[in-house]
Write a structure and sequence with these properties.
Length: 104
């Protein structure tokens, strides 16, 4: 199976599809799959203007969390972003070092 645009092989880890590039970046950057899954499930989105969608966790998302364990994962996820291609595979992940600019 090939990802759109990149020609990168796609693997499924848990219930999320990742390109090889994303899996390598997660390992290099020490980002756990559970954190990426939480960012994708509960995070906010912005378009990257290259056909992908950026997922991230805002302070508002963390404030809405009820359980302490979820809040801990969201706090970790607040420092992470994930870019998802149009074919719904995670293309890359990284640590947020600057604000994600919102459209509008």
């Amino acid at each position: 199976m090939r990802a759109a645009g990149g020609g990168n092989k796609v693997s499924t880890l848990s219930r999320v599809r990742y390109t090889d590039h994303a899996l390598i970046r997660m390992q290099q950057r020490g980002i756990r799959p559970e954190v990426v899954e939480t960012v994708l499930e509960l995070g906010e989105t912005e378009h990257d203007h290259h056909g992908g969608t950026i997922y991230y966790v805002s302070r508002a998302v963390i404030d809405r969390a009820k359980s302490p364990s979820l809040r801990r994962i969201l706090e970790e996820g607040r420092k992470v972003y994930a870019v998802v291609a149009q074919d719904c595979a995670v293309v890359t992940v990284g640590h947020r070092i600057k604000r994600i600019l919102r459209d509008g």
